[in-house]
Design goal:
Blueprint lengths: L1 E6 L5 H9 L5 E7 L3 H11 L4 E3 L11 E4 L6 H10 L3 E4 L7 H14 L3 E3 L7 H11 L6 E9 L15 H4 L3 H4 L2 H11 L4 E7 L11 E7 L5 E7 L8 E6 L2 E5 L2 E3 L1 E3 L5 E3 L1 H12 L8 H13 L9 H20 L3 E2 L43
Length: 381
């Protein structure tokens, strides 16, 4: 029986708790760590966990096997390294860390201690998304020529009133790092790291944040293909989608299939036969038994038992940080950025944030919101 500790009992912690509770024959939550014990006590009571409550997670590491890290981003890598050094496996909420140097420290520690690290990428565990990606990755409809990611979110100004949000050094970045990382991960899952990118970053309307609330990037791949990523916190209705245009058809997420044939003069007409072929390829793929965080936790536990490979491992989490670091480097410098970002690059570590543009001065700080409602996209894809 694996003993699990949840570190950080804020808004995302219930998704982890509910995920582990799906597998009572494999694991049990035995510890909750939070600087404010009241938050942990509330989680304990809500789910009837009877877990030990501690202010400092380090005091319980010797008594658990698995650590789920649900803290603000600036603490992720330190907790993950401490967990590995104590022989614990770690599930890290996105983002994995705030810099490539921190990612590499986590990976090195886990390898040295023989522990597993999985980085939360719950969108990989949604059947409609996974199967659309699989259709594009199959090559059945040709090479993916053009990918477009619209990572559209809406957050009011008060979102940044939390003391750690809106600060480059504490949160690490705005919408690109902490919201669009979900969609960026899906693009990387299909296409991998590009050869280069060019980006712009801006703060359009969040006056209590040093960070960006908008970014747009054009990615160039070595095979000649192109991708676009737009990240936004100013999009009413949060109309999110991904589009993959292949040589002989296109798919989108939420799933839809498209195919065009060319007239003699080059103008298109619908290729219904090809569209139906794409739809059939999608429909033939099975649905996941567990989805979202439940699916990721199922895979994580199975990987610990040696029964499955991790679907989202530390290298996947690191790739997200590398691409996002490139977005910030290009957006701040105004120059094209080439990959990989190597250790002697100033952007490999996190020191660059000290000189990053402060779009606004952070003036309002609160320690927590009583309302912990968050965006729920279950069933949308």
């Amino acid at each position: 029986m694996l003993r699990v500790m949840i570190v950080g009992c804020g808004a995302i912690a219930p998704a982890h708790v509910e995920g582990y509770m799906k597998f009572p024959d494999i694991c049990r939550i035995t510890a909750l760590a939070n600087r404010s014990p009241a938050r942990a006590d509330s989680l304990n009571a809500r789910y009837g966990l009877d877990a030990r409550v501690v202010r400092d997670y380090r005091g319980a590491l010797e008594d658990v096997d698995v650590v789920s890290i649900c803290t603000p981003p600036g603490e992720h890598s330190r907790i993950a390294v401490d967990a590995a050094e104590a022989g614990c496996h770690a599930l890290i909420e996105k983002p994995m860390a705030l810099s490539l140097a921190e990612c590499d420290a986590v990976i090195s520690s886990a390898r040295r201690n023989g522990t597993l690290v999985s980085v939360v990428a719950q969108s990989r565990f949604i059947s409609g998304i996974r199967n659309a990606i699989a259709v594009a990755a199959s090559g059945r409809f040709g090479r993916t020529l053009y990918s477009r990611v619209s990572s559209a979110w809406y957050r009011g100004s008060s979102y940044y009133d939390l003391s750690w949000r809106g600060r480059w050094e504490a949160e690490g970045g705005g919408c690109t790092l902490n919201h669009s990382i979900h969609h960026i991960d899906l693009l990387l899952w299909l296409k991998g790291i590009p050869k280069s990118l060019t980006s712009v970053i801006a703060n359009l309307c969040h006056d209590n944040s040093e960070e960006e609330d908008f970014s747009s990037s054009v990615l160039s791949y070595g095979d000649g293909s192109i991708a676009e990523i737009t990240s936004s916190l100013v999009s009413h209705g949060e109309p999110q989608y991904l589009s993959f245009q292949m040589e002989r058809g296109g798919v989108t997420i939420p799933f839809a299939a498209y195919a065009s044939a060319s007239r003699v003069n080059g103008f298109p007409y619908p290729d219904d036969g090809r569209r139906e072929e794409i739809e059939s390829a999608f429909a033939e793929l099975p649905a996941l038994r567990f989805e979202n965080h439940d699916g990721q936790i199922a895979n994580f536990l199975a990987a610990i038992a040696g029964d499955e490979e991790l679907v989202s491992g530390p290298e996947d989490g690191r790739r997200c940080i590398e691409l996002i670091t490139g977005v910030y480097k290009s957006g701040i410098s105004g120059k094209r950025v080439f990959f990989p970002i190597v250790p002697d690059d100033v952007y490999y570590g996190g020191e660059w944030r000290g000189a990053a543009p402060r779009f606004h001065e952070k003036k309002r700080d609160i320690e927590r919101f009583d309302d912990m409602t968050i965006t729920d996209f279950k069933g949308k894809f």
